[in-house]
Structure formats: structure tokens, C-alpha cells
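Case 542 in the screening queue. Each case pairs one protein sequence with one candidate compound; here the compound is 6-O-phosphono-alpha-D-glucopyranose. For every case the pipeline is the same: read the inputs, emit a complex structure as C-alpha cells, and attach any notable structural observations.

Predict complex for case 542.
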Amino acid sequence: MNRTISVSPFSDQKPGTSGLRKKVPVFQKTGYTEAFIQSIFDSLDGFEGKSLVIGGDGRFYNREVIQTAIRMAAANGFGRVLVGQGGILSTPAASHLIRKTKAFGGLILSASHNPGGPTEDFGIKYNISNGGPAPEKITEEIHARSQVIDRYMIADFDDVDLDLIGTFEAGGMAIEVVDPVSDYADLMETLFDFDAIRTMVAGGFKVAFDAMHAVTGPYASEILVRRIGVDPALVFNATPLEDFGGHHPDPNLVHAKALYDLMMGPDAPDFGAASDGDGDRNLIIGKGVFVTPSDSLAMLAANAHLAPGYKDGLKGIARSMPTSGAADRVAAKLGVEMHETPTGWKFFGNLLDAGRCTICGEESAGTGSDHVREKDGLWAVLLWLNILAARRQSVKQIVEDHWAEYGRTYYSRHDYEAIETDKANELMAALEETLDTMAGRQTGSMVVERADSFTYHDPVDGSVSRNQGIRIFFEGGSRLVFRLSGTGTSGATLRVYMERYEPDSARHDQETQAALAPLIEAAENLAGIAGRTGRTAPTVIT
Ligand code: G6P
Ligand code: ZN
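Case 542 output:
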């Protein structure tokens, strides 16, 4: 039996960079989750009788929301839902499942790399039939709908046993609980030379992987350990936990410090990697060398043809605006299109669908390709391993060769987390006001060449996205970017992105923060971060 239940709108249901993210107690408010899911369904047309994929990263509250979503899908008229066993689907695996089964769309329950637990973060994101995050047009409709919603529809049936693989029927709808790993693992085997990687590993090449107690544990166990032969003792934190063991499942140098220390130590394995809460991000570290996400994108793009799935070359490369220009140099050399999009994977969807790019990446530790419509952590790990197996070189050699060939882009991001929203907005507004008079300004040893607020014109559908971050270009090719995070759940996070291009290989071994010191100083001078926020140092440096 279906019920229609009255509900009043919640004023705070505006999806951010990647869906709606809030603290768990917010989602637990009576009717809150239901109102948002109903707003999604009300914004979609023509799903009657079609399939919906539902899965999440296993964090606290995942199972409860999955049961609610299943009952609401039934009452709203979906014909079938596909759910990952245990409620688990990594974000890239969910994207693949939507594409493979030609589903109408999917609900991905995750707050990515944010912490989990009863007072921590939760999130709901809607993905469309191409497997990618809903474009802004749809997220804006969802938000508009959430502001006037007055009822939701839900079916009355018992909880589905999410741990039992099989097909069930409830509320007039088919419910398929599927193995979350096997389809995805099979897809990876079509893209990469598993034989070559296996041979390399069998020959003593040591691979370490930190699943951070998040969703990639089962994927790493199947793909890296069972199909490739990686030593299970080097696959860390492979059991998904609802609170990620109390840690941030964020694969950066702060939260994956144990892996970093291992890779920098005397007994370092040859290759180390980590992924985040929902499995779409990656961290790549070679023996004694950290590869920045911006560099990783460039290096993967330059070498992708060595993997079977990309042997015919790339159609183009895309990166988010704050990501460094390292990939642009690869695109220029390959003679393929290069695209610069706003932050957020959803902006790559049109380019990928239109065949205008094959590989995309972001400074925020996301890399992926046209195999799905999400960024993909294990994909990046496997492409690196495939390249290493084909080139028979160390990560360090590949990195240094790349810099020698293309020049090195020193790159860093400084985050100021949980600052007061008003102060953050004021800082951005003040910067914006100085944009017109910025050119020619001298700060320390740096001279501003031009400055703007980034606007994206989507070349495929013609849509325009404004206010995507402030860019300050300096003479000599350095760049500063300021933007506010769109994924936080408390206060505002100011991100300052710095890059400096160094063509001379005699100067490729500087320490990154030292190489960027003039830019760090310029950022403070131009934005007055300390004066406006009271913060004299960033919370996180990556
Ligand atoms: C999520 C999105 C990414 C985006 C990142 C940036 O992870 O999936 O595409 O790059 O958020 O988030 P921010 O906090 O900088 O808005
Ligand atoms: Zn993520």
C-alpha cells in the first residue's frame, strides 16, 4: 500500500558541488530525507516502470536511507531498483551499474571523504542515465522543488534484506540486490593489461593500498589481491566501517599520513595508493615521491596509450579550473583538445558524452575517463600500475622524465576550514572588487598580469556557469586561485590554489612550499586572509 504524507519544505536543501551534504542529525529530522528524495523524483520525467540504482559508501545511516529510498521508489512508480549488497556501491561502480543496466538514474548516498558517524556527515546525490552527477539544470530544479514540496509518497513494506543477493518483489516493484564488486572488476579487466600487472607484482614489485576503512576495501580485495596478486598484508584498512574507524576517509597527506610515512621510509613498497569514503578519489605515492593530483592527471594522459583501453589515444583532456596547467602541456603535445571546467565532476559529463575528451582530472584527487561518468580511484591506481608494468620504470623515474620533457608545475592548495561564512563571503567579495584594478599590481617579487572571476561556457550545451572562482595570473606564468568550497558542512572553507611553472630541469628538485613562497606571500597580500579571517596559517596544506 502506498501512502502520501504531508511535509513542509526545509529551507536548506540546496545541493552543493556534489549533492546534498549535511550532518546525520539533519537528515534524521522527521521528513527531511523523504522531502529531499521526493524533490528529486518530482524533478524527473518519465521514469515510470524504469530502473533506479541505489547504493552508498556504507557510512552511518546508509542502510536506513536505502530502505526509505526503496520504499519511495516503489510508491513513485519505478519498475525496478538495483541495490548493492549490504547497501554498498562505490561511486564509480554505481556509475557503471547505471550505464550497464541502462537504468533511468541512481541515488548515491555518500559524503565522500567527509567523516562518518552519528554526528558526522551524510549525503544524497542524484545521477542521470549517463551515470554521471545531475547537471546544474537538474540540481537547481531539485532545489526549487524542495522549497515548495508539500507531500511525499512511500510504500508500506518490510525492510529489504540488503545482505542477500537475489531478486525480490515488493510494492509492485522488482528489487535486485547485486554484488557491488564483480561488474566493476570486470570492467577494469577490459581496460587494463592485468597479465602484465600480475607479472610485475609476481616479480617482486610491491603495491600498498589504504582503503581507509571505506568503500574500496572489498574492491581492493577482489581486484588487487585476488585478481592481481598484491600481498594482502599491504592492503590496509580494508574493512568498511560506518565511522571509517573515526578517521576522515580523505586520501591526502594529512589523513593518509601512515601510508605517506611508509612510502617515504626505508622499507617503502614500490607503489602506494589510497582512495576515499566512496572510492572516487585517489592518492598516488611512489617510493620516496608524492605525485600531486594535477601531475598525476598529466602523467596518466601522457602514458594512457600504454593501457589496452586507451591504445588508440585520447580524444581530449579536461581539468577543473583550479587544477594545474600540467595536463595542458600534454594536450598540446598530443595535439588534442583541452578543456577547463568549473570544480565538480558533473561539468565533465557533457564533454565525455560528446566525445570531446577521454581523460579528466581535478586537483581534489579525482581522475577518471570515459569508462564511467564519475571519477574513479581504483581506475587511477590500475592505470598507474599498467603504465609502470609497460615502462618497467619506477614512479620516480616516470615523474622525473615527465618533468624533464614538459617542465614541472609546482602546485599546492592551502585550505582554511570552518571559517565564519560571512567573513569568507566578505573576503571573496573584496577580492572581486579589486579585479579590475589588479593588472600591473606588484606584490613582493610578483607582478599581476590579469585577473578575473572564472565563467564557464559549456561548449556542448551552451550553458553558462558564473562565479566559479577568482583567478590571478602573474607575469612569468604563475597563478593564484581563490574559491570557497562547495562540499563543507560547517562554516565556510576558503581554498587558495597556487602554481608556478618551472621549465628548467636544473630547478626541479625544490621543496614545493619553498618553491611557492612568493605566491603564498602574494595570496596574503592580495586577499588579506589573516586580517579578514583571523587565521594566520592554513588548516590543511596539500
Ligand atoms: C567533490 C566533487 C569533485 C570536486 C570536489 C571539490 O569531491 O566530486 O568533483 O572537485 O568535491 O570540492 P570543494 O570542496 O572544493 O567544492
Ligand atoms: Zn569521493
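Case 542 observations:
- The chain has three domains: 2-178, 184-406, 408-541.
- The CA atoms of residues 404 and 506 lie 9 Å apart.
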